[in-house]
Specification:
By secondary structure, the protein is mainly α. 59% of the residues lie in helices and 0% in strands. The chain is built from nine helices and no strands. Mean pLDDT is 82; it is low at 143-152.
């Protein structure tokens, strides 16, 4: 079975996950569908595949995968899936994701990852806490060194 078969054919991640032990099996397969190009054949947008109310356990599991991303493509692939469920994220989860992404150079230093992050800004929560998290994300990494003059 290919990772794409899990999402496109069976739609097993649509809405609430099935009861145990299948829920654990599916959560264990998240790294498979979060691989670069694993969902390249998916027709339509990812929110259609996860439903209006995706299972709340998906978001923390995906944030965990983002923290473990070991390549630019891998980080972007996880963020692409997170964009599919961003409409269901809490502000706390968004804050956690942005902190995780900022701490992972494979995401923070990646054009691919940053494209997904920018998209998430419009798909995710929009409250005060989310705004503060975005303001923190938008700060230059070395803000303390700006304006500092060094002599040779």
């Amino acid at each position: 079975m290919k990772p794409l078969d899990l999402v496109q054919t069976h739609l097993l991640f649509h809405g609430p996950l099935p009861p145990a032990p299948l829920d654990g099996i599916l959560l264990g397969r998240l790294p498979d569908i979060a691989q670069p190009d694993a969902l390249s054949g998916v027709k339509g947008t990812l929110p259609l595949h996860f439903g209006e109310k995706p299972d709340p356990r998906l978001i923390p599991a995906l944030i965990g995968l983002a923290s473990e991303a070991g390549s630019y493509e891998g980080g972007a692939a996880v963020l692409q899936i997170l964009n599919g469920v961003a409409h269901a994220m809490t502000e706390e989860q968004l804050e956690q994701l942005l902190d995780t992404a900022a701490g992972n150079g494979q995401i923070r230093g990646s054009v691919l990852g940053n494209r997904q992050i920018v998209q998430m800004k419009w798909n995710g929560p929009q409250g005060e806490r989310a705004e503060a998290a975005w303001n923190k994300w938008d700060q230059p990494e070395e803000a303390g060194s700006l304006g500092t003059v060094t002599s040779d």
